[in-house]
Amino acid sequence: MSKKKCCSPNDPSKNDSSIKNINFSERPKTNSEKMILIDQDNFLMGTNYEQAFSADGEGPLREVSLSKFYIDQYPVTNLDFEKFCISTGYITEAEKFGWSFVFYQLISEKIKKNVSESVYDAPWWWKVDDASWKNPYGADSSIEGIETHPVVHVSWNDVNAYAKWIGKKIPSEAEWEMASRGGLRNKNFSWGDDDSEIYKKCNIWDGKFPDENSLKDGWLGTSPVDYFKPNRLNIYDTAGNVWEWCSDWFSSSFHQIENKQTRINPKGPLEGKTKTMKGGSYLCHNSYCNRYRNSARTHNSPDSSTGNLGFRLAYSD
Question: If exposure means fewest CB atoms within 10 Å of the residue's CB, which of 109, 181, 189, 244 is most exposed?
C-alpha cells in the first residue's frame, strides 16, 4: 500500500527529559498479577500482506525467537496512572509543556473557542492548552467516569518513568507483536483474518474519517480496556483503542537484514530519533489507516503525547 499519513500526529521533538525526582520509596512490589506469561519461543513477525504499509517497514515476514516474558493483560488505565502520579508527584511532559494534541470532535465548544493551531497534514489534531492525562480533552475535562479507559497523553519518557517505578519494562516491538498475535501464525488481526463486523471486535473509526462516525462500536474516543473480547492468550485491546509505546528505536530497514540481532530477542537499532508504536487507535479505519493489524507500526518522538497514545508493560524474570 502507498504511504499514508498515520492517524496519530508526529510531533517535532521537544526537549528530551530524564527520569528524576521520583519517589521510588513509594514503589509497589513488582508482581505478575494481571500479566500473561508468553512462553512461545518463536513466531512469525511482520507481514507480506499486500495492503500493508511497506514504507513503514512492516515486512518481511520472518521467524523471530524470544525468551519467555510476561506482558500486561490490559493497557495501563487512567486509574493505574493516577496512583503513580499521586505516589510519586510525577509531572508528565504534556503537563510541563502545557498542551497536547486532542482529536477535534472530543473538544468542548468552550475549549474550541480558544484553539488556534492544528497539525498541518493531520488537521483533525488540535493543539489544546492544558490537555494531559488527567484532563484528556482540555481543562474542562477529567478522567471521572473513564477510570478504566487507557491512559493517554503520555510520552515515551513518561512511560519509562512509570515502568521504573513499578519494576517492569516497556515491551520490545517483537514482544508486543508476539503477545498481540495470541499464538496465531501469520494472521492480520489479533483474532485472525476476518474483518467483517469489525466494530464488534475492536475500537476503531466507524464511518468516513475524520468527520463521520456511526459509533457502531459505541465509542467516539477511548473505550474501557476490557470492553472487547481478548485474543487467544487472554490479552485485551491490542487492536485499536490506543497506540502503545514500544522500547525500540524506530527503523523501517534495520530488521530487514537477517542476523542474530534481528531474529533472536531483537531490540531494534541502538539509536534513533523516534520510538516505535503498535496497535492502532480509535481513529484508524481501513479506508485511511489500517494500522490496527498485528504487523502495523508507526513512530513518534520520545517526548510526544497525543489523545490516542498509551501503553502496556512487560516483565522478565
Answer: 109
Which architecture characterizes domain 35-88+154-315 according to CATH? Answer: Alpha-Beta Complex (3.90)
Return the biggest CA–CA distance within the chain: 55
Q: Give the integer Cα–Cα distance in Å for 135 and 144.
A: 10
Tracing cell 542474530 back to the chain, one arrives at 260
Mean pLDDT to the nearest integer, 101-110: 98
Whether the CB-CB separation of 97 and 165 falls below 8 Å is answered with no
Q: Helix or strand or coil: residue 215?
A: coil
174 vs 278: CA distance, rounded Å: 10
CA distance 276 to 299: 4
CA atoms within 13 A of residue 311's CA, in its CB half-sphere: 30
Chain segment 191-231, per-residue pLDDT in tens: 999 999 999 999 999 999 999 999 999 999 999 999 999 99
Identity at 252, one-letter amino acid code: S
Q: Which residues of 220-243 are buried (b: 16+ CB within 10 A; e: fewer)?
A: bbbbbbebbebbebebbbbbbbbb
CA separation for the pair 305, 283 (Å, rounded): 15
Mean pLDDT score of the chain: 92
Q: Name the more confident of 317 and 209.
A: 209
Of 159, 196, 182, 188, nearest to 85 by C-alpha is: 159
The edge-to-edge listing of strands for the beta sheet with 309-310 is: 298-300, 275-278, 243-249, 309-310
Please give the pLDDT value at position 286.
Answer: 85
Residue with more model confidence, 27 or 237: 237
Pairing relationship of beta strands 69-72 and 314-315 according to DSSP bridges: antiparallel
